Amino acid sequence: MAATHRIAAGTVIAAVCVASLAGCGTGPDGTGEHARNQEKAHPAPAPKNVVRLIGDGSTAYTGAQPHLPRPERLKPGEKPPQFVVFSWDGAGEDSQRLFSHFRKVARENNATMTYFLSGVYLLPEEKRDLYRPPQHSPGRSDIGFNDRQGIADTVEQLRLAWLEGNEIGTHFNGHFCGSAGGVGAWSVADWKDEIAQAKRFVRTWKTNAGMKNAAPLPFDYDKELIGARTPCLEGQKNFMRAARELGFRYDTSGVNNQVWPKKKQGLWDLSMQLVPFPGHRFEQLTMDYNFMVNQSGTTTQGDPAKHALWGDQMRDGLLQGFERAYRGNRAPLIIGNHFESWNGGTYMRAVEEVVETVCNKPDVRCVSFRQLADWLDAQDPATLAKLRTLGVGEAPKKGWASFLSGGPAPAPKGAPGSPAAKG
């Protein structure tokens, strides 16, 4: 259901140098270069802690992540905030510069996001055999690898994104879908191996790319990595088993209605959701790829005369889903995207317009999955159980003050002891 995202080989983009960490130099040869104007306008703050390099210096511990809000438990009778999560599969910076663009969009609209990095985007083509994908030959990847300049640019965006409070998750490595070794057929051991390799490519990108003088990523990826979305939304069952054993906290590889999340196999189930699809009688998954498939099929550049309409359909569908939750049950809205210019970039335009429309509204928090999981963990389990009794778009009949006044939560519909289960 999700699509691949390929880093263009041979892309040449001016690297950015940020003096926020010990050592500066993220060009393809590890030497310093001037920052882009857009980064100068909104510089990321330098960590105040002493940098402690990890391994070969590709990553570093720099203290607590900046700009993370402290989660607070709802008070009795308090209306929950409306959470919206914008997330990106296979996050990398290529010639389209969509990673840097949406970082800017987020900053300008009081938002943070989750970027799911594909580990092979930090592995140069000439080192491809270092990747040994489960059930495939060494050096195989359905989304290719990268070059040194692309690695430098991607690392720069990852660094700045994290310093701005965004989350760096994983979209794993080779993005294998379907039959013949696709992730849907992977065992728990296969998933653990794939996750270990994704971590290793992040922890060793400087060695693999020959950029020993470059600045490190400012986080310990073993601690940073707490969630993921599987390629094509396949293989969720065994992935979740592996993820739970590895200490992950959430998964967003499923499909759900707009209701409050619960834990599944010990992980927060933060699945993408079904929202209205303008002009159609069925609802649509909150992902750009799925809108595209239901508009132009597998053709990524369909009829240009319909591009504007298709983008408007995605924008309006997401906004209708937002309003349904915002005025109803306040269930978090989960949105997934790719840094792609499918159908003339109309879906990127749609996402940007949704960010600008919703993230500045009262009681709305546009956050990363990490921040949402932190908030959920801080709540009284009885309060969350009560929230989960609300259906799609259903507001409390007597208002929020009465609904969350502190009384016991009703049994979920269909559960033992509830009216629906009797008889």
From TrEMBL:
<keyword id="KW-0732">Signal</keyword>
<protein>
    <recommendedName>
        <fullName>Lipoprotein</fullName>
    </recommendedName>
</protein>
<feature type="compositionally biased region" description="Low complexity">
    <location>
        <begin position="405"/>
        <end position="423"/>
    </location>
</feature>
<feature type="region of interest" description="Disordered">
    <location>
        <begin position="403"/>
        <end position="423"/>
    </location>
</feature>
<feature type="compositionally biased region" description="Basic and acidic residues">
    <location>
        <begin position="69"/>
        <end position="78"/>
    </location>
</feature>
<dbReference type="GO" id="GO:0005975">
    <property type="term" value="P:carbohydrate metabolic process"/>
</dbReference>
<dbReference type="InterPro" id="IPR011330">
    <property type="entry name" value="Glyco_hydro/deAcase_b/a-brl"/>
</dbReference>
<feature type="signal peptide">
    <location>
        <begin position="1"/>
        <end position="22"/>
    </location>
</feature>
<dbReference type="InterPro" id="IPR052740">
    <property type="entry name" value="CE4"/>
</dbReference>
<feature type="region of interest" description="Disordered">
    <location>
        <begin position="58"/>
        <end position="81"/>
    </location>
</feature>
